[in-house]
Amino acid sequence: MREENNSETALKKAMALCAGREYCTGDIREKLHAWGITGNECDRLLAVLIKQGFIDDSRYASAYASDRLRQNKWGKIKIAAMLRSKGIDEKVITNALNNIDNDEYQRIIREEISSHRRTVKSKNRYDLKGKLLRFGMSRGYESHILYDLLNDLD
Questions:
Q1: For an engineered disulfide with 96, which of 59, 65, 81, 83 has Cβ 3.0 to 4.6 Å away?
Q2: Residue 4's pLDDT is what?
C-alpha cells in the first residue's frame, strides 16, 4: 500500500513539473530515482507521462535547441552534444537541429563573432582569426561556417 501511494505521489509531482515546463525522459527518470522510484515502476510512470503527453522528447529537443540558440547563442554542435548527454535519440536531435532557421543561425554567428572581434586583442590578422575561430568553436559553431566568415573579414 505504501509503495503504491509513493508511486501515485511521484506521478502527481512529475505531472506538476511537466505542466510547468518541458522535461525530457532522462530528466524525469532522474527525478523519479531521487524520489525512490526505480526499475519497472519508474518505467511504468514514464510510460504514463509519455502517453498522456506530459513528456515528449521531440518537443523537448526542439524547444531546447531553439532556446539555446536564441538565448545562449550556442551552435548546433554544442546543442547536439548537450541533447546527447540527456539521452535524446539521435534522430530526434537531427530533426530538432534541422528545424533551426538557417538565415537566423548565420545571423547569430555573424553577430557573435563581430561582437567578440571588438573585444579581442591580437598581434596580427592571423592571431585575430585564430582567437575568433577558437571562440566560435567553443560556442559550438561549425568550422566550415567559421572559416567562410573569417575569410570574409579580409
A1: 65
A2: 61
d(CA 55, CA 35): 18
Please state the pTM of the whole predicted model.
0.89
Grid cell 502527481 is found at: 12
Q: In this structure, are residues 88 and 79 in contact, taking their beta carbons and an 8 Å threshold?
A: no
User: By the 8 A CB rule, do 117 and 128 touch?
Assistant: yes
- Cell 571588438: give the residue: 118
Torsion-angle region of 87 (φ positive above 0: left; ψ -120 to 50: alpha; else: beta): left
Domain 2-55 belongs to what architecture?
Orthogonal Bundle (1.10)
Q: Locate cell 540558440: which residue?
A: 69
